[in-house]
Specification:
Blueprint lengths: L13 H18 L7 H4 L7 H24 L8 H32 L15 H5 L17 H20 L5 H23 L11 H22 L3 H20 L4 H15 L8 H33 L5 H41 L10
Helix pairs in contact: 1-3, 1-11, 3-6, 3-8, 3-10, 4-6, 4-11, 4-12, 6-8, 7-8, 9-10, 11-12
């Protein structure tokens, strides 16, 4: 008989802290190209911020399995259908995506009317607007346009379509060892296939292969969630697994180990932080909720700062110290814009949409045998 499922860490716990840190690192990675000295030239770690995205892709599968696994399998009552599940997921990500995308469109049009061109005009390709609006721009079209980080949301949207079927299959696995073997097989075999076909690791694929990069990591997150459910780990055991993951990160950073090691370490850290916590922090909970807004708005923040505000400030002074001061201002601006977007835009929208999409989740009772 399968072991009882463990409870996912409460809001305000370690996973929320990791969400925020990963979002902040993605911002550093992207803004690092506009620093007075590119951050990647200061330390190679800053040039590998793309791996924080892989953390989110694994975590997405892990958290969705914990949050919706019982609903889509019918364990917690009437089974939730694909339509109801997709309505909930799209209601969570699409309004923010649409608002920021249309804001970028308005800014580019306003700049064109004033005779001003963005620093990277190739990112604002009008032919790519329709795929971005439809959230399919990472399905083979190419995701390096408009709000570039949303390529991952586009790829995840495709994974959401397969989630109920995938989880019903993985939920049949009752042996935690098989779950771990499944996780390792997914990330390693997919990486080897991509290397053999395209010559790069799966975790460093171009944006047009976003779905190829995302799908195995999402599936690996499902396998980790099932491992936590079947293994019934104690808190001490979870912490030990997380510590091994942190040690693997240190080894990878100090050596020329492939990115695959960091992906496996990411899985270990997620497992270590994925158990229930006894004393959640409201500050950490706020940071975890803010992470999505920071992720979705920082392209807009960078455009406003580096093309307008920061450019004007640089003309007021000179020297390396002033240049770095202005650059650090971009980080504060991105955080402030994310907080404003979260409290005045995203959170109110979710509060309005929540009751509507939750009503769609009440599936019809399944007919019982006579």
């Amino acid at each position: 008989m399968a072991a009882q499922s463990r409870t996912l860490a409460a809001r305000g716990g370690a996973l929320d802290a990791l969400r925020f840190l990963a979002s902040a690192f993605i911002v550093l990675f992207h803004f690092g190209y506009d620093a007075p000295v590119q951050l990647a030239h200061l330390h190679e770690m800053f040039g590998r911020g793309y791996l924080a995205t892989d953390f989110f892709l694994i975590l997405s599968g892990f958290v969705l399995a914990q949050a919706y696994g019982g609903a889509v399998t019918g364990r917690n009552g009437p089974r939730m259908g694909l339509g109801a599940f997709m309505a909930r997921r799209l209601a969570r990500i699409y309004p923010a995506h649409l608002i920021i995308l249309l804001t970028l469109v308005a800014l580019v049009l306003a700049a064109a009317a004033l005779g001003v061109q963005p620093a990277f005009p190739e990112h604002f390709d009008w032919a790519a607007l329709a795929p971005n609006l439809l959230l399919i721009h990472a399905w083979g079209y190419g995701g390096d346009t408009w709000n570039i980080p949303t390529w991952s949301l586009s790829a995840l949207a495709a994974c959401y379509l397969a989630f109920p079927a995938l989880w019903r299959a993985i939920a049949r696995v009752r042996n935690p060892g098989v779950c771990i073997a499944l996780f390792l097989a997914i990330v390693s075999v997919s990486d080897l296939i991509v290397i053999s076909l395209l010559g790069v690791e799966a975790f460093d694929l171009p944006f047009r292969y976003g779905l190829v990069r995302t799908a195995p990591l999402f599936l690996a997150g499902l396998a980790l969630a099932r491992f936590c459910q079947t293994a019934a780990l104690s808190k001490r055991a979870s912490l030990c697994i997380g510590a091994v993951g942190v040690a693997a990160f240190a080894v990878e950073a100090a050596t020329a180990a492939p990115d695959l090691l960091r992906i496996i370490a990411t899985g270990a850290v997620i497992v270590g932080c994925g158990q229930a916590v006894s004393r959640p922090s409201r500050l950490v909970e706020w940071a975890g909720k803010l992470s999505f807004s920071l992720f979705i708005t920082h392209t807009l923040a960078g455009l406003l700062w580096f093309d307008l505000i920061g450019a004007a400030l640089l003309r007021l002074g000179g020297g390396a110290l002033w240049a770095w001061t202005v650059w650090f201002g971009a980080l504060a601006f991105a955080l402030g814009l994310a907080a404003a977007f979260h409290h005045w835009v995203d959170q109110p929208i979710q509060q309005r949409l929540g009751p509507l999409v939750r009503s769609l989740g009440h599936a019809r009772p399944q007919p019982q045998p006579a």
